Structures are given as C-alpha cells and as structure tokens.
Predict the structure.
Amino acid sequence: MNSRMLKLIAAITTFAALLIPIRAQESNQIHYSVTSLGTLGGKLGSSAHSINDIGWIAGVANLTGDNVEHAALWRDGVITDLGTLGGSNSNVDFPVKNNGGLIAGFAQTSTIDPLGETFCTFTCNPTTGGACDGSNHSCLGFLWRNGVKEPLGTLGGNNSAALGVNNRGLVVGTAENITQDPACMPPQVLDYKAVTWLAGRIHELPAFPGDAIAAAVGVNDNNQVVGGSGNCGSGVGISPIFVHAILWQKDSVTDLGNLGGSINNVAFAINGRAQVVGASDLAGDNTGHAFLWQQGVMADLGTLTGDFSSAANGINNNGQVVGQSCNSDFSVCRAFLWQAGAMTDLNTLIPVGSRRHLP
C-alpha cells in the first residue's frame, strides 16, 4: 500500500469518539452527538476502529508518555487495556463483527524480529508519524475474550495479524510463510498470505493467480471473506501493494475488478447481503475512490465535494457505508456516510460549534 492509501485508511485520530444518532425534532433527519472515549493515559490520542451490535467499541489508545499504544475496549463508559503478547504494542485495527465478546487484533511479542522486519506498524504520534517504542519486535494475531488472550499462529514465518472475526468464530487476517521474496520492499523479507483461523487452526486462502501476497480483512456470518492480493511491500501495516480486490468463498477466489487503476485495489468489508466496500485507484493511479461492489458490478462512490481521494471501510446490512474522504495533500480528511446514492459529511450532522472534527 503506498503512502497515499496508507494515509487515507490508517490515519490515527487524536481522539476516539462515539457517534450517537439523534433525530432532530424539526425534521426526520438524523443528527449525531459526539462522545470522547478517552485514552489509556496518553495525551496524543486514541482511535476507535470497531463497534458491534451490543455497543462494544474496540481500537487503540496511547499509554502514559505516548511511547506505546495498546488495543483497547470501551464498554459501558469504561476503557479496558487488552494488553500485548509480551511486547510493547497492540491494536484492533479493523471492524470486528462479533457480538459475543470475541475481539481479534494483533500484538507484539517479546522477541525482536530475527529478520529485522517491522511487520506490524505502530504510530504513537499521529502528527509526526513517530513510531512507538518496540516496533522492531515480531507480532502475532490474537483473540481476546473475558480477559484472556489467545495468540494465533503463522504459516511458518515470524508474524501474523488478525483483522476480523464473525459471529461464527471465524477469524481472518494474514500470516507470513517461509518464502524469502527478493521483490519485497525492505525491511520486509517474507511473503505473507491471507488466512483464516478457526478453533486455533490456521488455513491459507489462495491469492489471485500470479500474486505473491494477500490479506483477508473482512468477513460476514456466511463465512464470505474479502481483502486484497498483490505484490510484497514492506509489511502489512505499511505498504502491501494490493493489485486485486478479492472475495473468497471457501477457497474460490473472485477478483472484484477496479475503477480503472492497476494498484491500491482492496476490499475492506462485506455485509450479510454480500455487498462489498473498499477502495480502488482510478485510471492513472494518481488517486483512488471508495467503491461498492454488488452482484458483480463495482460502483464508484466518489468523494465529498472538493476532495481528492476516498475509501469505504464498513457497510451494514442496510447498505449504509462509512469511510473517509480527503483533500489532495491529506491535511484534511472527513468521515462520511453514504446511503441511497448520496455521500454526507458526518461533520455536518454533529452539533453546530462542536470542537470535534471527524476525520
């Protein structure tokens, strides 16, 4: 993933917030109140990445000193530190669709990566892009439930990352194998593949034919999995070069197509109606837009007025899409809601005069 796509889909905000819908008395339009969720003691930020149907919110938050960050769970007004696997940092980086209290993420171990890789990216200062302490350690995917973390394995390599889990307990993500790929961008050495874990057993999903790497990002309760495949970058959190947005049904691979570009094509989420959202480059690969794929057709969702790029990160069973739209230098990004063919800046639906900005 190049720096443009990375900035668009993985920018860390300066606060984690909960949007609560309220219906305006004077109309039927939905507006939102904003509640800051707080940090684990840090001053520079936290970021909420996931909310399930029972209101559990998961993401990441800085600890005191802003040198490390941990996966965090916000529920009933209380923040819980989900800890690590012996290293310094951890994260729940993508929406988790489990309503039974099962949370998937990735965390550093106590072992410095033996190949010098920085597979999992942790950024403690959202302004400068400063890396967290210990980012040279290996990391593994994990499952958390009721205070207990279960580490998830690899395909023989040193790193893995769990990126989603459905209500049937199927976990999706990516894991390194033992193939040293000279095409990888340093410091990455090994290829990594899309995988699922179920009851602790790992299963490799096939990449699109000819592609070296893949990552599974989203899954619905029908066990349909989406993500991307392409060329080896410098780590799953930094710059995988996704060429194909992919839908996996069992071990069948479907290329979802693109919006004209040859790279930065990746699917992030799928709902129960098999509607898929993600991001795809336009022709020329100078910018990319959010897309909605359904029944074999990929539709360009565009951007908010005046913006340059967009990405869609989630979709519910009502077909409502959420994501981010940014200007040309990514200095201003805005959260959006897309529904019924229209994209709305969520900042226009929060109270006038609010000091919060929804990026």
Remarks:
- The chain is about 0% helix and 50% strand.
